[in-house]
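User: I'm curious whether this sequence folds into something compact or stays loose and floppy. Could you predict its structure so I can see for myself?
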Amino acid sequence: MGIIKIVGDPDGHGDEYDIRVTGEATGAGDMGGGDDVRRLPDVQQMIGSINEQSDTYRYTGSIVQADVPNGAAMLIDGQRVDSDSIGSGNSYTSPTDPVLGPAPEPEPEATPPTEPEPEPEPEPEPEPEPEPEQSPSATPPTEQSDGSQQSETTTLGGSLPDTVMWVVGLGAIGLAVYKSQQ
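Assistant: Here's the prediction. I'll summarize afterward.
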């Protein structure tokens, strides 16, 4: 979802604005009286008046028309945009992917360590624990095709090196996804 902010002129006296988007639009909390979002047949219209304050809206889709009074500034996703550049075939599209959601805020890139980290030494394998006796509520053994029975065993957790490898692997996947979106 993108953000449109109309910042008023210190000398503004209720000058009116009109912005239209192809997707959805909602007010974002700092709007004064008389500011409104209206559904029209093909677009949603954000209208209001601005003085020295500001009005903020959230939107999806494309901005297809923007009439903002002289002296007021229009910020789209934090960037100042000349309202005269929108309309007459030109539009501005929200950076939102309908599947992935809004574009993430850029984070400072991490600097890789200068020295490689030493490999963790393998831990000795623990001695196997004796199997607990089955209680009457335990799952009964399953019968095999040859007539023998096999108990079902489930292991939760795992050894520490396995856990470390999962954490490192998931971290690498997360970093790869983040880098691919930049």
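Summary: The CA atoms of residues 166 and 172 lie 10 Å apart. The chain has one helix and twelve strands.
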